[in-house]
Design goal:
- The chain is of the alpha/beta class.
- It contains five helices and seven strands.
- The model has no long low-confidence stretch (mean pLDDT 94).
């Protein structure tokens, strides 16, 4: 996996103070993408075990309530297990910290892919759907366009039907 940037303390994406990683690479090419520079899979830096350790160490700060994974496209980071390993480690070492992920994929389609499903099962909240410029709404919290959904993944799997959150 490659990443473009890490924010140790992020209050713009998700509730509370969170640590955020922006992965590199996305094939969706949404018109009006706010992170167009992250579409190139070769941009940014290679993810390493040392970076993972540093990211995890930062989560020891009690002010951080969780992590965010944005991009680029997190669900396209399935050519190796770097992101899967990171999310599994966060869940194991910090079970009370939530994981939020943003994807252009639709939940119903993403879970048909075994590797994407593995990632999604480690996430607490998934913001899904392509950014649609004609549905852009700057008043929305945690999403850019009205078609995108904020999905409570744990409740969705528990109940067997899609459970969305309102912010």
């Amino acid at each position: 996996m490659r990443y473009n940037k890490i924010r140790k303390y992020d209050v713009a994406n998700g509730p509370g103070v969170r640590a955020t990683i922006f992965v590199s690479g996305c094939t969706h090419k949404c018109e009006g993408c706010f992170n167009e520079e992250l579409q190139d899979f070769n941009s940014g830096n290679a993810w390493t075990k040392e970076l993972e350790d540093e990211f995890i160490d930062n989560l020891k700060n009690p002010v951080i309530v969780g992590i965010n994974v944005l991009g680029g496209e997190p669900l396209q980071q399935i050519f190796d297990d770097s992101l899967l390993d990171l999310l599994a480690r966060v869940k194991k070492e910090f079970p009370d910290k939530t994981i939020w992920m943003w994807t252009g994929d639709l939940f119903e389609e993403a879970i048909e892919n075994e590797k994407k499903l593995e990632l999604i099962k480690l996430v607490d909240v998934l913001v899904d759907g392509l950014f649609e410029l004609e549905k852009r709404n700057i008043k929305l919290k945690y999403r850019g366009s009205e078609n995108q959904r904020i999905i409570d993944i744990k409740e969705t799997f528990k109940q067997g039907n899609l459970v969305t959150l309102e912010y």
